[in-house]
Amino acid sequence: MPDSGQNHRNLVVEIVGARNLLPKDGQGTASAYAIVDYDGQRRRTKTVFRDLNPQWEEKLEFLVHDPESMASETVEINVYNDKKTGKRSTFLGKVKISGSSIAKSGSETLVYFPLEKRSVFSQVKGEIGLKISYIDPPQPAPETEAAAKEAEEKKPEEAKKTEEETKKTEEEEKKKPEGEDAKSEAETKSDPAEAPKSEAPADAPAEKAEEKKEEKKEKKKAKEKEEKPAAVEKEKSLAVAEVAVVASRSAMKDLEIRSLCGGGGSRGGGAFDLVEKVPYLYVRVLKAKPAENTDTDTYAKIVIGSHNVCTRTVKSTDWDQVFAFHKAGLNSTSLEISVFVQNTVETEKDKPPSKVDTCLGSVSFDIHEVPKRAPPDSPLAPQWYTLEGGGPGGDVMLAVWFGTQADESFSEAWQSDSGGSIVHTRSKAYLSPKLWYLRLTVIQTQDLKLSGPKARPAADLLVKAQLGQQVFKTSKVSAGSSSTWHEDLLFVAAEPFDPFLIISVEESSSVHSVGQAKVPVSGISRRVDDRSVPPSRWFDLHAGDAFAGRIHVRTCLEGGYHVLDESASATSDVRAASKQLSRPPVGTVEVGVRGATNLLPMKPGGTTDAYAVIKYGPKWARTRTILDSFNPRWDEQYAWDVYDPCTVLTVAVFDNTKHKSGSKDTRIGKIRIRLSTLDTNRTYINSYPLMVLHPSGAKKMGELELAIVFKCNSWISLIQAYASPLLPRMHYAHPLGPGQQDLLRHTAMQIVSARLGRSEPPLGPEVVQYMLDSDAHLWSMRRSKANWFRAVHCLTRSAEFARWVRGVRAWTHPSTTLLVHALLVIIVLCPHLILPTLFMYLFLIVLWRYRGRPTVPAGMDARLSHVDAVGLDELDEEFDGFPSSRPPEQVRARYDRLRALAGRAQTLLGDMAAQGERVEALLGWRDPRATGLFAGACAVAALVFYAVPFRVVVLLMGFYYLRHPRFRDEMPPVGVSFFRRIPSLSDQVL
Predict the structure, then answer these.
(1) Pick the residue with more confidence: 900 or 868?
(2) Which of 294, 460, 517, 789 can pair with 539 through a Cys bridge, CB separation 3.0 to 4.6 Å?
(3) Nearest of 81, 92, 89 to residue 115 by alpha carbon
(4) What is the dihedral of CA 852, 853, 859, 864, to 10 degrees?
(5) Nearest of 502, 517, 508 to residue 548 by alpha carbon
(6) Which PANTHER family does the UniProt record give (predicted)?
(7) Distance in angstroms (rounded) separating the CA atoms of residues 94 and 36
(8) CA-to-CA distance for 980 and 922, rounded, in angstroms?
């Protein structure tokens, strides 16, 4: 048995119940029980007899041996029908849940998972309701930590004892007779709770067998009491051995995870195989020990050539700072570290005291003798060095080594090529806040106190709800002591949530509030689908301290939706808000930001301080800022888990101005790469042009060099992702309207921008909005033209085919037309060859075009964006804010132009609607004569098609359509003229 789990993470699987199970006992019912397997551990529920909707309400606990590898483990639940007749239990279904989708205790929700088949021939039906969570152990007290250290020191000695004892036990087991082994094997096979995972468990034991087992357990307990003094030491050794096995297992899992993910850490793959390894000289200064005890301020100074850097000034002589010097920028072979003490010297009266720096001594190093270190080597241990060169003297503890940007100390180090210790120039990884939809259903109010201080007529009432900065209102209803709405209001909530959802009842004719109630957001229930209805609650309304009535509402956090915070066409994450609905990742994408070339000067002084931002899913990565360089080299690598291949990775380059002036960072350019266009396990190293649209036109700002690789964990999971819906189920079961979805997306974008702007270093709102395409929904003449030409380009193939058909019909090439006649005869006489020929033709076309497939991931396309043929006034309109800030004459001219375009679109829509209305009028006797003629023609056609074989009709119609032009008339056919004369509803429109 595993330990109690007090010092380990525990997994809790609560099996609530099942629905609509398949009858298995021949009488229309089933006696179901469930078996849960996790990490070699197995638990079983009780049997619920003769019920297709069993309710267990049981909690099963498991020990998590390695919390770090919990995401790679799976929880398997198998449901069986208990026959109770000695026969094998029948299979009712199973569920597999990835460890990455398990929530922490307190945030789990009830989810009904559909039961899956075990094989192709399994018959499965229904679903099972589960609540799965994990519980972390409490933090150990200092005394327990000390005891743990002592236990670790005693492990080697105890491990030797356990090895000797295990050898003895193995020898004793070999000496046992074979009959006893056979009996033990038979006993283990008869117990379904200890059967192997690959086999289905045996029937549940009968009541008599259970009584026998209880008697055996009591006998064993009696024996244990007698042998307890002799077995204490043996239990201790076995416990130590079990700890060693768990440790070795966790170490093996760590190695597997690292081999799959290419290393760990927030900076992506530890190997840094997509970028060039840049050498840096690292100097880590920990502390100093002066020869004379002093309480004055001290600091260390590092000098190497033209580089002159000082640590922070402290009184405790404890700095623990790391400095990284780019090897290419070193202009000296000597490194010198000096320690200084600041002494306060009193001056004349009416003047502040001055500080004089006294050098305690220095330590010198020859760069050629500095050792090299490359991860995963252990960090270099710091050493004490004696300060020399005059002065009071003392010791300084430091470490000096050569490494690369893959070193763990690089991200927090002072960097010579990125502005040193300026916080706004450091590389960082950010996480977007976890977003939820909060649904408020306003049902009704009761006992409203509508009488105010002054007598006034009763006005219509509405309910206003506010969450943070979001305010939504219901429709108006007639005033009364009881009013009913049944309306939904949808908010965007971000973790950590705002404390309260404020609900108030107001009069529509004034700002007078009848009453107000506060709903704690932390107590709102969560749901993951539409099958469970959240409970409704009554809240008291208060106007000041007085009671003003009650309001009946229903609130819930919708975990089944994906909260969009970026453009739908370039989304990078489609997972539901609830972690329990997320599937395991299908692969990883690694991005190496190598560098940029030929950047333009961005600041008035002719300089550029560039950094790159990469966004995929909820994770953002920001490289360090390379100061005053038009060809910066970052050589940084990052990694993301991929849950859907049909998503987009966004990379943008900005000019950093916050570290100098504090103003907004300037855009340099952006590219997007869709992961589905990448071959798996192939490294792409390419340069992409950086384009930015200005009021004066499009401008190329430089080029960005990237290295990208999409690694696939399982081809089966990758192919399954293409067959699954793009968005979670709730988007199709209860879809949101286009206008509501745009409003919620804009709100989510503002929340993400505000949260990331409070990080350190902050990711400015101008950066977040540019990455998320905050202005994608605004009107733009250029975008409209680009979309129009995209639509025209998609129709060119159809237009080419129509031109080819016209050429065949016009006998432009008589040989081609004769071949089409022969093809028509073959198709009519052998119709079973139509579909095979069509699909074979498509297969050959796809195979032929394989040679011309794109080999480079596409970036931003200036020609497709229609930036070359756009006018200056159209660009000015695109950069104009909303509402417009231009003069009235200019706005009037733009409005007239927009009216002209809208008029053409209006005419086109009217013509399309008229064709459908003519078809309805043909069948609706709107024109009695036309409908009568159509009815007669249908009767004649029915007789003709009944008498003449269908093949002959098709052949004659084909020959008639392809007849020679000398046998055709230039006037429209009779059928077309007849259809155009049918009335539409255009004449009834005002």
Answers:
(1) 900
(2) 517
(3) 92
(4) 60
(5) 517
(6) MULTIPLE C2 DOMAIN AND TRANSMEMBRANE REGION PROTEIN 14 (PTHR31425:SF43), PHOSPHORIBOSYLANTHRANILATE TRANSFERASE ISOFORM 1 (PTHR31425)
(7) 10
(8) 11
